[in-house]
Amino acid sequence: MSEQIPVLIVAGFLGSGKTTLLNHLLRDNRGTRIGVVVNDFGAVNIDAMLVAGQVDATVSLSNGCVCCAVDVNELDDLFERLAQPKARIDVIVVEASGLAEPRNLIRMVLASDNPRLRYGGLVEVVDAEQFPASRARHPELGGHLRLADLVVLNKADRLPPAELADLRAGLAAEIGQVPVYATSFGRVDPGLLFDPPTRASSTVAEQLSFEDLLHDHDSGDEDHAHLHDEYTSVSFTSAEPLDPRRFVEFLEDPPDGLFRAKGVVAFDVAEERRRFVVHLVGRHIVFEPGPWGRGEQRVSSLVLIGAGMAEDKATARLGETVHTGERPLESAAMLGVWRYTPH
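User: That's the sequence. What structure does it adopt?
Assistant: Structure tokens below.
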């Protein structure tokens, strides 16, 4: 799999809970090295330090995370520094408010020439209780929701269940397949947003760190009572190669609630024996062709991650992408794949 660093954009209007979500990710990262990009350090809880009004500054936290304060004109330079191998960053989270419109930030990430970076999605945070008022004050919110790859419906505990259900139904009617994750206190499971790092584990006994103690405290019954959705992870494996046309159709019209898909696929196309790493975030698709490893079986293996996704329907639809014909397909069947392959 690719070792590119996902760049996740978190957007939302004042008071929606963006900073609360960021602080939750910083506190509950459990070994993930996060680079958080904000306008200033004032609102982000960085070990009780208060550093505000600084530009192009960096603070390293004791848990391995890095917080950066920049203006929008210096984002490219900051991405370059965070992507350096010596920084050992696993994911970059950009808090969009005050930096730029989400659309511009998405373009900036997608246009980056840095081979170590990839787009990790736009997360739009919405205040469930104040949604009608926010929509009235900010008509552009509708455009942000339709642009989002994941909508986090925060402060959902403040609405009666029936009202929350009506709000979710209304959002679904407006934004279609975009997954909606209802939560309170900005609590989003990091596994929905990005993968935990795979590092060599040590068997040497260690003293619990301050972050470990905080995590143990946060895992008590009180926090478990907080309202939040569960995310779904679905695995699919096929020893038979796939039809690239059907597979691209699946990615372009994904199951409702699908946020991310990742894996390796093999296609039943004449003279095409390479493996294809695939990344899907929202509606953004990337294929990366390359050789199979020595002794690696030519097997397609995928993981789908989403919120409110029907597992059986997703698996059934993937099963329909397996090529059942007696002969391999012509090379023209790969045109859809090439459309999403960087050149």
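The CA atoms of residues 266 and 298 lie 6 Å apart.
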